[in-house]
Amino acid sequence: MSCHAHRNHLLPAVLVVAAMFSLHGCASLVPASAHPGNYSGLSATDALERAREWQARAPHEPDDTRRGNAWLQCAVFAHDAMASENDAEERSAAALATSCSRAYLARITRDTSLNVHPGRVLLGERWVQVQFRGMPDSLDKQVHLELADQLSVEGLGGVRHRQPGFGVPVVAAAPPCTNRPICALYPPEGIFRPATVWLEDAPGMTAGAESPVLVVQSPDTQPDHIMGGVDYPLAAGFSAPYEYLLERSKLRRLGWWGLIGGQAIGERAGLFLLDDYDPKKTPVIMIHGLGSSPIIWGPLTNAIMGDAALRRRYQVWHVVYQSNAPVLIERHRVQGYLDAAWKVLDPGGSAPARQGVVLIGHSMGGVIARLLCAQSTPALWSSVFTVPFGSLRGDAAELSLLHDIFQFQPYPGVDEIIFMAAPQRGSPVAGDWLGRLVQDLALRHIPEMPGLERLVAENPGSLQASYVSGSFRIDHLSSVTSLVPGEPAMVVGDTLMPAAGIRYDSIAGVVPGTHPPSDGWVPLSSATLPGSASTLIVNADHHGVPRDPKTIEAVLAILRQHGAQH
């Protein structure tokens, strides 16, 4: 195969000057949208000079319409000049094409939303031809574009991950789809993906003609733009789409209301993808804790998405569940969400993504993650019931549910768990006055419990005495009671460890001055697990553990090591 060299330029984020490095590639790798040369008929030097003239003129134009047109003219002439054979001229042209495209987009989005679709679109007072290149299937044919650098990253701890390069980073947003099974796996707030935008001329047209092209390209699927034989990596904002989602999410308050009986979070419970499914990427599945939501994973998810190597290797999935039920029921619920997702994503069960799965669980989510990877034992059943399962009478569906709650296998494909502030041996806070108050509220709307109570009523004498009266009686069971030290089923459940071959790491928090050491909710002795491949203790309270910089650094290191072994 014959190859020719493509020079590769990485533009700086300031868009004034650009650094250059060389990359050799084969002609067969150039995408169909690559542009071999300019369209204006001007030399690259003349096109660059025209672009600079429009750049100087734009701020002095008397009205917004003419200023916008000047920035557009600057952008398309500069893009044509990128076909230059002179390295310095190429770099200057690419930086100018980016900065003028940015100025144009800022002007037209100042007073109106930027909604585009492939084809002819009126932007401001000018028609342009919009081209989507490599955009993901999850987005509709019409998207809303938001400049990435205008979005706050407050929900991500103020950390913004950007990739410098050619073009203007934006967020491409669309409502969730409804016409395919996978649509149920996208967040109901909408679909938000990184994109890169710039202006250029259409083939065969004079630079600055009436229908310039607005390119909207995915930096994930098509990370480069080729112009004049030069390969320009695209600029991208990988934090902005996630921040856009967090700003629109109602989960922050729904998590707490779900614990005390609110049903809204239960209605949207399930497993959700933050990006388009990739059958070759390893899932990192995050499970939140009691009265919480995936909002708590903001800084960690951002850090994984912002690391180029980890982004290529992993895809982050979030579990949402109503955290009001006993832990064994919650384990069963989460398993159901995982099963439903895989049925949609990989019904044949053969995708590489099925293997090497990583679970990350905070608080009760860590207990659920451990039980998902454990083998149940007869002792677990006997801790609650006095008779064998086969001797029970009752409704077939209710018996099947009871069977599945108490008899389970390690979830297939998982080989790494990261526990964060997980009460593996319970929490004394669950038994204090606040815990009892929350427990009474949490008893509401646990849909599995009425059926289990009917089975008990139909089978007198089938329950152990501890569940007949007292604080653990069957009609008082909730997520809170199952975390009280001494709760019989969880005394046995605490002995159920991840199956052989599954590595696990423990991260715990300690609030300075607590005796015994604790994160304010979970004692250090409960949050550290024997057999952990690594144990990290951070100075943080219970809800601060997942957001602590040392926690995030440790998780990234574990994922890098995990990736190197697969």
From TrEMBL:
<feature type="signal peptide">
    <location>
        <begin position="1"/>
        <end position="27"/>
    </location>
</feature>
<dbReference type="InterPro" id="IPR029058">
    <property type="entry name" value="AB_hydrolase_fold"/>
</dbReference>
<protein>
    <submittedName>
        <fullName>Alpha/beta fold hydrolase</fullName>
    </submittedName>
</protein>
<dbReference type="GO" id="GO:0016787">
    <property type="term" value="F:hydrolase activity"/>
</dbReference>
<keyword id="KW-0378">Hydrolase</keyword>
<keyword id="KW-0732">Signal</keyword>
